[in-house]
Design brief:
Helices cover 14% and strands 35% of the residues. The chain has 348 residues and is mainly beta. The protein has two domains: 2-157 and 312-346, no CATH class; 161-298, C8orf32 fold, CATH 3.10.620.30.
């Protein structure tokens, strides 16, 4: 094993329980997909320069959201491989890791990479998603291999803008928001009753910010909590039932029905939403809102590690777009190794 420490300019995992410090093992069966070569995976982590400190969160030039009171934590991702009864070869692992956002900075604190791994690098997906990509040429019967990386993550509170009236609806063609106006996995607004409801909700409002806030309050007031697994937003709208993920997804869908770019944000233990408006210079600004739990519109006061932003991500190894990008493993050979992924919030 060898230990290294280096800066990692950007990074991003199934949503996990906020109260958990060490997640149990998640044993995943390997999917027999062919190994695909990715140029990014061949880039060694040595390409990332060392840095003694985290970068400060970026600040917007105009009176948009501001950031304060950063909280620094350690986030560890681990893959444990256990060989089967026979040999296997050409194993490919992908692991999502935290990445940088205006409110979040990330640095590699420590890694533990076996020397028999062909290469370990990083791959950027659309929407700012970042993955570790590891290739292992050979796995012997009953062999055990562990890969781990620990990240130092600093996440700030997000404070609401002083004057929301400065911001307007972006054009549907604007590059920053266009990807967040359509439908995606479990997020759909192509329903006549849903669209009619959105028009009714915003009808009596006197400005765009109030219109979006009215949609937000409608979801909070009309969708009852349920412990059922996440569902399609149209079903959530019709049944008036949903878990937190459903509520966030419905708010996102209703914003998009109102031609407001919106996306899900996946953080440690939960999800919230962001919507996009522009200022007089057409610069994009994203504003958070906590759809479930404590009411926070335009701000997010509890710093949590951001795992992913977006809800329709193209992943090379998957046929369909992913609402959330999780771990992935595949290899060649009749005897498939077992792979366990762990995500851990480390205590100081």
């Amino acid at each position: 094993m060898r230990r290294r420490s280096r800066l990692f300019v950007s990074f991003i995992a199934t949503a996990i329980s906020a109260s958990l410090i060490w997640l149990p093992l998640i044993w995943l069966p390997l999917i027999g997909l062919p190994i695909t070569e990715t140029a990014a995976a061949s880039h060694s982590p040595d390409n990332f320069p060392n840095s003694p400190s985290l970068k400060k969160p970026q600040e917007t030039d105009i009176e948009g959201v501001t950031f304060s009171n950063p909280v620094t934590t350690k986030w560890k991702v681990t893959a444990k491989i256990r060989g089967g009864s026979g040999p296997a070869k050409n194993m490919l692992l992908t692991i999502p890791v935290p990445t940088e956002w205006p409110e979040q900075s990330v640095a590699v604190a420590e890694d533990d990479i076996p020397t028999n791994i062909a290469n370990v690098g990083y791959r950027d997906l659309e929407g700012g998603v970042k993955q570790i990509v590891a290739k292992i040429p050979q796995i012997k019967p009953r062999e055990e291999i562990t890969i781990s990386m620990t990240f130092l993550v600093s996440t700030s509170q997000i404070n609401a803008p002083v004057d929301p009236s400065l911001f307007v609806r972006p054009k549907t063609s604007q590059r920053d928001g266009k990807p967040y106006l359509g439908i995606g996995p479990q997020i759909n607004f192509r329903d006549s009753k849903l669209k009619k409801e959105v028009k009714s909700i915003v009808a009596d409002q006197d400005n765009l910010w109030s219109e979006i806030e009215a949609i937000y309050d409608w979801v909070r007031d009309n969708i009852e909590d349920t412990s059922e697994p996440p569902r399609d937003t149209i079903k959530v709208f019709r049944d008036r039932l949903g878990c937190n993920e459903d509520k966030v997804g419905l708010f996102v869908a209703m914003c998009r029905a109102h031609k407001i770019p919106a996306r899900m944000v996946w953080v440690q233990g939960t999800q919230y939403a962001e919507f996009m408006l522009v200022d007089s210079e057409k610069k994009a600004h994203w504003f958070p809102c906590s759809v479930g739990g404590v009411r926070e519109f335009g701000s997010y006061s509890e710093p949590r590690i951001v795992l992913q932003k977006g809800d329709s991500i193209k992943v090379p190894e998957k046929e369909s777009r992913q609402k959330f990008v999780g771990e992935f493993a595949t290899c060649q050979g009749k005897s498939k190794p077992a792979v366990a992924f762990q995500r851990t919030l480390l205590e100081d």
